[in-house]
Design brief:
Blueprint lengths: L26 E5 L1 H17 L4 E5 L5 H8 L4 E6 H11 L3 E9 L3 E3 L12 E7 L5 H10 L4 E2 L5 H6 L9 E2 L3 E7 L4 H6 L5 E4 L1 H6 L4 H4 L2 E2 L8 E6 L6 H10 L2 H11 L4 E2 L3
Helix pairs in contact: 1-9
């Protein structure tokens, strides 16, 4: 009997000011804790040499960083990929722009009960993110690992706009699959509680909770250039010298090499 599914949505905002400064820095960048804040901490000394001091404001959800950017509380954020940014702009009419790509965090399939894809049961409960913009990517991971075959003619929009109960009509599979959606921040808790048969966990949430995607996932996402994590700012600030210096540093050979070395493949450099 499976343990109780954890479905309560929790929005937790944690503000963390990195470094000890006598005066508050002029610039603020919002970021997820891992790996985004870690990467930004590597960039801080580079920008300080150029005369730009900035504080890192940590967020532990996917909604508040864009709200903070829109309200002017921060100058940029670093946590999201292009499909999510486009969906947020469409829903909230944000005047944001993609300042440049930095890295990819592969999504993994995790299970405490089953150690291989082949051993997953015929009646399969999959716990996934409740963010519709994640669904095409999740379907891609499942198809790459021969769990489903997406029907001809099905588009990303079809997958995004479908109800949860209708998702199985969009593909064929040798398994009877039930999808259970939870807030992204609760994916690890459901995995740790052994809810469902397997959980698809975003790379940053896996890293945040001490998982190593390369060794702990029973399957890992392959190529995912569409889902490169990007630096985002207000359109009016794109030419700001700080934004230009920040994205140049993030995409520099020094930082991209550090990402490759530090995360050993669980975070993949993706400089433009």
């Amino acid at each position: 009997m499976k343990k109780t599914l954890i479905v309560l949505s929790t929005l937790l905002l944690v503000f963390t000011l990195t470094g000890c400064k006598k005066e508050e820095a002029k610039y603020k960048v919002g970021a997820s804790p891992i790996p985004h804040s870690e990467i930004l901490r590597q960039v801080q000394p580079i920008l300080e040499e150029q005369g730009f001091a900035f504080d890192i404001i940590e967020f532990t959800d996917y909604v508040l960083p864009n709200q903070a950017l829109d309200s002017g509380e921060i100058n940029a954020n670093f946590f999201q990929h292009v499909p999510y940014l486009n969906a947020q702009i469409g829903e909230y009419d944000y005047d944001f722009v993609n300042a440049g790509g930095v890295h990819v965090e592969p999504i993994g399939i995790y299970s405490k009960e089953f150690s291989t894809i082949e051993s997953l049961p015929t009646d399969l409960e999959l716990i996934i993110s409740n963010s519709p913009t994640d669904r095409p990517r999740l379907f891609g991971v499942l198809e790459e690992n021969n769990i489903i075959e997406i029907n001809d003619g099905v588009t990303s929009e079809d997958i995004t706009n479908s109800s949860v109960s209708n998702l199985p009509t969009l593909f064929t599979s040798s398994r009877n699959i039930t999808f259970i959606e939870v807030d992204s921040s609760l994916l690890y808790l459901n995995y740790n509680n052994e809810s469902g048969d397997a959980v698809l966990i975003n790379g940053n949430y896996a890293l945040d909770n001490g998982l190593n995607p390369l060794t702990d996932a029973i399957a890992l996402e392959g190529s995912a250039s569409l889902y490169v994590n990007i630096l985002v700012c207000n359109t009016s600030d794109l030419d700001d010298p700080f934004i230009q210096a920040l994205i140049e540093a993030l995409q520099s050979e020094e930082i991209q090499t550090w990402i490759e070395t530090e995360y050993e493949g669980s975070v993949v450099p993706a400089a433009e």
